[in-house]
Amino acid sequence: MGVEIYGLDISAPYRIACMAAEAAGATYETKHVDIFSGDNMKPEFLALNPQHNVPVMKHNDFVMNEGRAIATYLALEFDKTKKLYPTDCNMAHARISQRMYFDMGVFYKAFGECVYPKMFRNAEVPKEAFEELHEVLGWANDMVKETGFAAGTDHMTIADICWVATYSTIKAAGIVPLDKYKELEAWFDKCVSLIPNYEKANGNGAKAFSEFYKSKV
């Protein structure tokens, strides 16, 4: 059986899983879960994931949640090139993991602090949140300078895929100017060209997030 990925397009972690499936060459099917309509609280979904968050991946009898973890599984299971998450070099493997943790705990978090208060609580966002996002973007820009990829490799890895989900959402939402981050802009364009079916896997969802965000501000 192929892979099933449950979620919705505006979710960056869901799009990480879809892009990883595309890059790894996995045969997969998407299952729409509208969390705003309560699909994630239905018994059939809770049977897959009692934590009721998205994305969720099902491959045969193996089920797991968390988009970045799903990406690691898909890379290890399906990527015949072994380049998305290489296991033959501990330093490269560790650096890719570190950049993924950076994405979850720093990069996407900084972005979320700029948009989620307004989207879900109609609360004003302090200017310090945008200043912090600019600082984080500067760090990310410096990280891609060396080799043109997120983890210091000479090719795209799942760390890049995670960052693409975050950066494309920032870019689509238009909350901060990005033109001064020239290395990041070049990196992003390169990754977009390397991810198969990019618009289906990520681009359309980033645009959908932007539309949802702009409808709330």
Description:
Homodimer. Residues 1-82 form the GST N-terminal domain. It comes from Caligus rogercresseyi. InterPro entries: Glutathione-S-Trfase_C-like, Glutathione-S-Trfase_C_sf, Glutathione_S-Trfase, Glutathione_S-Trfase_N, GST_C, Thioredoxin-like_sf. By secondary structure, the chain is of the alpha+beta class. It has two domains: 3-78, Glutaredoxin, CATH 3.40.30.10; 90-215, Glutathione S-transferase Yfyf (Class Pi), Chain A, domain 2. 59% of the residues lie in helices and 8% in strands. It has helices spanning 12-24, 43-48, 67-78, 90-121, 127-145, 158-173, 182-194, 198-214, and strands at 3-7, 28-32, 56-59, 62-65. Strands 2-1-3-4 form a four-stranded mixed beta sheet, covered by helices on one side. Strand 3 and strand 4 (62-65) form a beta hairpin. Helix 4 packs antiparallel against helix 5 (127-145). The longest helix has 32 residues, at 90-121. The radius of gyration is 17 Å and the shape is globular. The relative contact order is 0.15. The model has no long low-confidence stretch (mean pLDDT 97).
